[in-house]
Design goal:
With about 475 residues, this protein is α/β, with parallel strands linked by helices. Helices cover about 35% and strands about 5% of the residues. The chain has a 6-stranded parallel sheet. A two-stranded parallel sheet has the order 7-8. α3 runs parallel beside α4, α4 crosses α6 and α10 runs parallel beside α11. The longest helix is centred in the N-terminal third of the chain and has 18 residues.
Length: about 475
Amino acid sequence: MTFVQGRADLPVMEKLRILADAAKYDVACTSSGVSRGNSGQGIGNCMEAGICHSFAADGRCISLLKILFTNECIFDCKYCLNRRSNDVQRASFTPDEVCELTMEFYRRNYIEGLFLSSGIVRSPDYTMELLYETLLKLRRQYHFGGYIHVKAIPGADPLLIEQTGFLADRMSVNLELPTAEGLRTLAPAKSREKILTPMRQIQNGRLEFGERLLGRESGGAVGDAGGGCGLQQMKGSGTAVLAERRRRRAAFVPAGQSTQMIIGATPENDFQIISVAESLYRKFDLKRVFYSAFVRVNDDSLLPDLPGGPPLLREHRLYQADWLLRFYGFEAGELLSEERPNFNVLLDPKCDWALRHLEAFPVEVNRASYEMLLRVPGIGVKSALRIVKARRLGTVDFADLKRMGVVLKRALYFITCRGKTMYPIRIEEDFITRNILDVKERLPYGISGDVTYRQLSLFDDFQVPQPDAFRLQA
């Protein structure tokens, strides 16, 4: 396939500068989630926890080669820097250029894998075909066995997405905005149906062509995708394609799929956002939902003003709540409600839930169930498992809890050991809140910790502090 769209005549390093910078707003980089040994015929392998992240000052993940194939785009989404109407420098890679960059960066130990996304050039089918051709060359011609995360293009032919899924370790389809109304307002050329269709296809494909058919093998050929690259050629040999993919030893999207939502570009509250994420986990078997604080890169009347910058603290609270949904047994309706639709900016969601349910505390660590231990602030998944194992052999006390990794400066208000608290305390919301707030929470880089406690009825990063208000609104 010949690709001449965009500035294909630019030097490769100039393209890399443009297209790596254009990819920095996509935060869906994660650990590989799949193990695959080297076949002995190529280069690279993939370990389940093999992607150790480092982030550049502008937020880019530098353990993966994270690039766009092209920043050309036929869409004019209001929030996107690469939208059609923007006057930005355009560039496009060729499949061979992406392959050579990946191989050379990997050989120098700069990266552990490839994250490849793209603007939509000409049509979704054309773009998806380019991504498929790139991955096919990387796997077959360059014999690359490392980790690959690629975007599935909404609206592309299902056969292209399926064939690409046998070459990639992880695929993602960006939901973009939490609700269909927000999508119609800021990205009218996109639709929720077109976004959810490839999500469902990837989910079904993982079930159909997963470990049951492909045999839990970790080595061997990776992504032997048969025949040529053309979509018409694929469609013309349906029987051969089916036989080939059943014979193939590479699993279909073995590391699962993920998605991303932009937070703050549209007026949805936290309850709506976390409910959407919960629905995606349940209905589409997603591995991860990513949240990206809205950055106003375009001057458009439909976009909100951000006098305080991107809502990073809100993004942080959503990630904390997302963790509770995935690993701690919480449901969205327990964390928030229509009457209380936004997270407290001063307390993490788990602490906030515990303070609103003091009737369930204190918990006796020597008798409480594993599920209840997970709901205690300061006790995580690993420490809860250690408690359950340790108490089979004897009684657990506070010194033991500290050695197990329990954060006692939070947990001590919610637990007892052998019927006693660590110190004389009052199980009262005001007392516990004041003491917890005295211990500064570790916030992500770029988020100020100088936040005063105030009463909150609605999430608002820019509300004037009220330092005399010391009671949480229920």
